[in-house]
Amino acid sequence: MSTSSDCIFCKIISGAIPSRKIFEDGQVFAFHDISPVANVHFLVVPKIHIQSLNHLKPEHEAVMGRMLRVGSAIAQDLGLGESGYRTVINTNADAGQTVFHIHLHVIGGRPMGWPPFGK
Ligand code: 5GP
Ligand code: ZN
């Protein structure tokens, strides 16, 4: 299925739910996270509905590559190229995935710890 009627990110892509859009092309959509964890925190999603990394198929390789390239280009446009930024895709409960439409988090503008475990 290319879109899911009960998916919040499909609704953001279609415009049914408003977002602070940064960029879109035929394959991907990028927008600011509603609850940022740093000065810069945006998401890059595929326009087709893919639930998680566990659902990737060979035909998704191009869009996954596009997500990384767009995330990197936006991060550099926002001035993070030199200072740095983190790219994260959470999968399922242990990683804290809450929206089941793949999304690349791009986070920057503050130092971050590693490894990234919470309390
Ligand atoms: P996850 O925990 O699944 O890796 O990340 C989901 C992210 O989506 C969270 O950082 C959350 O703040 C963000 N998010 C959830 N709902 C919305 C929304 O309606 N609009 C925007 N812009 N971000 C959202
Ligand atoms: Zn979706």
Write the layout of secondary structure elements.
Layout: H1 8-14, E1 21-24, E2 28-32, E3 40-46, H2 61-77, E4 85-88, H3 92-95, E5 104-108
Antiparallel strand pairs: 1-2, 2-3, 3-5, 4-5
The site of zinc ion has 6 residues, from helix 1.
- Number of DSSP E strands: 5
Strand order of the largest sheet: 1-2-3-5-4
**How many separate helices?**
3
Tally of individual domains: 1
Q: What proportion of the residues is helical, as a percent range?
A: 10-25%
Shape: globular
- What are the segments in which pLDDT stays under 50 over at least 5 consecutive residues? none
**What percentage of amino acids are in beta strands?**
15-25%
SSE pattern, N- to C-terminal: HEEEHEHE
Distance between the termini: 37 Å
| CATH architectural label | 2-Layer Sandwich
Average pLDDT rating = 96
**CATH topology, which one?**
HIT family, subunit A
Return the CATH class: Alpha Beta
**For the CA atoms, what is the radius of gyration?**
14 Å
Largest sheet: number of strands, sense, barrel closure: 5 strands, antiparallel
- Name the bound molecules: guanosine-5'-monophosphate, zinc ion
CATH level-four homologous superfamily name: HIT-like
Question: What is the structural class?
Answer: alpha+beta
